[in-house]
What we know:
The chain is built from 38 helices and 22 strands. The strands form three sheets. Strands 1, 2, 3, 4, 5, 6, 7, 8 and 9 form a nine-stranded antiparallel beta sheet that branches. Strands 15, 16, 17, 18, 19, 20, 21 and 22 form an eight-stranded mixed beta sheet that branches. Helix 16 (407-424) runs antiparallel to helix 17, helix 19 (471-487) runs antiparallel to helix 20 (492-503) and helix 21 (509-523) packs parallel to helix 35 (896-911). Keywords: Coiled coil, Signal. Residues 531-579 form a coiled coil. This is CHAT domain-containing protein.
Amino acid sequence: MRASLAAAALACLAACAAPPPDAYVTRGATATAGEPAGTDARNEACQVQPGRSLPADRPVLRAREVFCGGWTQPAARVLELSGSAGPAELDALAAGGMWRTWLDQRVTCAPPTRTTIAGGGEARLLACTRRAGGWPHVALVTAGPSGPVVADGVATALPVIERLAAGRGPGTGVAAAGGRSAALELAVARLSADAFGTADVGRYEQLMTLGRDLNQTENFAAAEDAYRAALAVQERVLGADNPNTATAMLHLAVNLSNQRRLAEAQVLLDRAAALAPRAADPVTPARLLHYRGLHALNAGDAVRAIGLLQEAEARYATHVPMAAQTQREQEIADLVADPVSQSAVLGLAEAKRNRAVALTRAGRAAEAPALVAEARLVLRRAGLEPNMMVGRALRTEAGADISLGRTAAAASLLERAATRFSIAAPGERPEAVTLFLAGQQRMRTGRREDALAAFRAGAAILRARQIGLPVALVVPYLDALDREAAANPAAAAALRAEMFGAAQLAQRSSTARYVQQASARLGVSEGNQAVQGAVRSLQDADRELRELFAERDAATGQNAALDARIAAAQQRRAEAESQVASAAPGYRQLLLAAVDADSVARALGRDEALLTMLFGPREGFVIALRAGRVEAQRVPVGEQDVEALVGRVRRSAEIGPGGVPRFDTAAAHELHRLLVAPLAPLLDGAATLVVAPDGPLLALPFGLLLEAPAGPEALAQASWLIRRHAITHVPSPQTLVTLRAAGTGSAAPLPYIGFGDFVPPSAAQFARSFPPGRCGPDARLATGLGRLPGTRAEVLASRQLLGAAPDRAILGAEFTIANLRRQRLDQYRIVHLATHALLPGELSCLAEPSVVASAPGGAPSADPAFLKASEVLDLKMDADLVILSACNTGGPGGEGGGEALSGLARAFFYAGARGLMVTHWAVDDAAAALTVADTLRRQQAGAASAAALRGAQLLMLEEAGRALPAAFAHPYYWAPFVLIGDGRREGGAGPRAAMAAPARGG
């Protein structure tokens, strides 16, 4: 079980820390049928309509709700009560009673101030702060035409509240006959200081609700974006140090932590710790302890997590009323009406469940089931036990059973949990995760058929929702299929094909993050209303389904009408997704939708084979496809072993302080033995090998793998894999299918445009983009960027070779992102960016992989010098090849650099490139210029890009020690360049406007 599976708590606690809007107000479905009520303090137009009554000590004559500025939630409530309205009565209503109790559950107020409203009416004004969000709020008790009036609302609604309380129409000015409003004068300083309106409050609450929904479906990357935006709204209006920002900050922190971005999460947790004690929401300190506990779990410190969660339970318990310990109906009703009590109950239950997870991880699994039972009892006694939380409780209990060796019991609990998730969030990630966990446990009990049924049900959800799971959850599915194929030879071919598709369901965290960024970019695509509208329609359909599922979750018994509404909404969602696919054909590529073996087989040429792989903690699988045939082999090593081998190869291939090191031929051969040799019979004879790597292997140029042992002194004659195949890398098999559907070559009329010799931003500009205290790793990476003078000669030589016009080499200070965007890039078959690409392993301060250009003159920071991957989506290209000839994946091994490079490639593919030629490490200027020039020469003569790059690399190997220095046989010189994607293919569009390149010996 993962600590991040505490999303139920986060989902519900998002509603606790920021209670859903109906904790304050009714849903705004009827908010459009009101009457004009004038304007508020921000001059936003308001409407008033009948509203629901609130608790009050006197009969309510009329209840009204005010809506301002297009916000769909009431900005204010006004209740007209019966009875006398003398000073003593006003004091009593302002100081206590049922209405004041209701108010205090939602806001925290200063003592009442005696004042008057416009027209001279006596009043009591309460300056308040909303517990959720910290927004300024006001409450007013005054004498109305028919008796006392009690009202509350967003502070900017006070002028409207006054008019309604006094019985005046919308056209009545504030300074009516009888005197000005002393109440408004008291509030005016606060209203002007807090420059906000109802739209800000509405935006904040929408974002918090969206974050909750996304977190509930365990989409932590998207939830992060929602909470980050909510925090930005608060900080803009209330200030960065306002204690009420702690709630959004905590939710943001825990979603970062759930993505294992621990350093970023810790910074936010520390900031929140200084703010939480002063927050208007009294549950915030308990939540801080709770989320610190979850963060400790994510960091692998279960013992510390146990202590923090226990402290959180004690804090939550101080806000849990007796209703959670009894079952008296009225007390339960009171509890449900009190957002603070709800928050505390849900927090207490989830802290207990999370502590059960921590106990299991600390080796104390026997104590966990009793704690889970306590958590569920707290919810039942409070009348709060949603299916989502029940599902998580069952999954937590199953985790304890797994640790105790009770495999069959764990499988049964997981199946029950999957059923609960199918009700609470049908067809979403939590259900799929739980089905995969259940399948793993069924495999351990020897029930392979049941296991495969669970895996297949979960896989259907993943394919329908176009989402992935962590590799460790998917590898057991491959294991089950592999064992079934061994036991059932007649079905082996179909099962191997299923293994191919199953391997694509795995997704690593950096990839998930990029996909989220890219998809969000499409959602706000500027200048393309069709894309923007289609993606927003899809998002609206998702939101509608979440609301309907929540409604069904709360319903009891059969509800045919509700089920029909859900079916209709699902159909609308399917139609919306089709519209997105039509408006943005590359959208599916960005989502990494899995494709089947038949689709890939149809995309491969006669002389091509595809090799893909997946490595879990203890073992992995390599899978090959050629001529419609799929073969798969189990590899008896885990991801860490593979990462160690990749690290050895990379360290021996990159130049260091002592120069070029001895190449680790043993590690290069061992990787070939593990990855390629098991499938050699199927791969032999393929002219081109398409490689879809996984995890740490994304940081490896496959051409330098060795088929046979070789001495470090005989590298020129070694049996490199590049000697047997031209090699192209793809982020996923699905990417290959998408690229092949686009055709074989560019139709652009012009041969080449190149950019190089960038001028790095200054140290001061970098410092503003990467504050050292918060962005240490990124700051060190960025400030280490140096000018690349060799790229000027490289671009000029390439321009001349391809016969492009002199002004098609854009260099030095002219190479800015703005200048690049001004070019009609879709007119060029080759786009050459001879510059750095920042590909950090932890995408933190630089949120995504970026290409670096010159900073424009006078730029305050380095930001304008970065072309981010999601911004590449806005470019329009028709290029056979985009060359990034000074790229660096940012370090050996690990998923970070390779994953980021993969994401950058996807962005260029979406923009219209067919291939991306990049370097895996900082390269020698002469070797880079030779590789680029010879590759372009061969491609210009008609070779496919993969074959052209292979020819250039073989030329360096063959000429090492003859026309070239002997050192050029070392992979540092010839191996860093790789082709990602297709580039130009055999039979593609040939040269048009360019001159034929002169022949060159080799």
